[in-house]
Amino acid sequence: MRRLCLIFSLLFYAPILLADPAQDAVEAFVRQELRGASGQVSVTALPLDGRLRLPACASYQAYLSNPSARLVGNVSVGLRCLSPARWSVFVPVKIAIETSYLAAAVPLTAGQTVQLSDLAVLTGDLGSLPASVLTDPIQAIGKTLKISLAVGQPLRPDVLTAPLLIQNGQTVLLIFRGAGFTATNEGRALNRAAEGQMVQVRTLSGTVVSGVAQADGTVLVSSSP
């Protein structure tokens, strides 16, 4: 009887080391979450602690405890057993995403305007790079550096600023646009602004209006609906 009980216990409560079906479930789930990611994705679910003693499982479901977590580097993915037992654990997963990114090709100084020749396209694991690293030269060319960068340092949006299109005191063309009409006027800018930034303009009549700086240096003033 004792031997039968022992065999029964081993059959239904044997420890698992993340058997292939469980590992496949975790890795397939992560790859699905990373669909559309730019770069070559590698996902490896690591074995569970061999000291864990969990009931045998026939059906697994992987999940994220924090759906907004960045899936790169070393992360934990939830794994629950759906049948015949009910339990859940967290599985260590190593995620590598080999991708291209922008870096400084030459030493760059603060205040410098970025040119195409200043940029290099490198390849590396996204997990070892800043979360917001730039990947397209268009995102950097023509912008001004806030800090200096050494050769090989990745470019991020927070170290760049758009060039100023409008200076304080500059005469600008105002474009008023509303439902069914467009009108123009001139005025004097009361602050500096880059493309997409708000700028206040005093018209020739002395009225102060607010608008958005456009790429061509004009100021667009949209009427409220």
Structural notes for this entry:
The chain is mainly beta and 225 residues long. The protein folds into three domains: 2-97, no CATH class; 98-161, Antifreeze-like/N-acetylneuraminic acid synthase C-terminal domain (Type Iii Antifreeze Protein Isoform Hplc 12, Alpha-Beta Complex); 164-222, SH3 type barrels, CATH 2.30.30.760. The protein has two helices and 14 strands, in the order ααββββββββββββββ. The chain has helices at 2-12, 20-33; strands at 40-45, 59-63, 73-83, 87-104, 119-125, 144-145, 160-161, 164-166, 171-178, 181-189, 193-194, 198-203, 208-213, 219-222. The strands form four sheets. Strands 1, 2, 3, 4 and 5 form a five-stranded antiparallel β-sheet that branches. A five-stranded mixed barrel has the order 9-10-12-13-14. A two-stranded antiparallel sheet has the order 6-7. The radius of gyration is 29 Å and the shape is elongated. It starts with a helix and ends with a strand.
Write a concise keyword list for the protein shown above.
225 residues; mainly beta; Type Iii Antifreeze Protein Isoform Hplc 12; SH3 type barrels; 3 domains; five-stranded mixed beta barrel; 2 helices; disordered N terminus
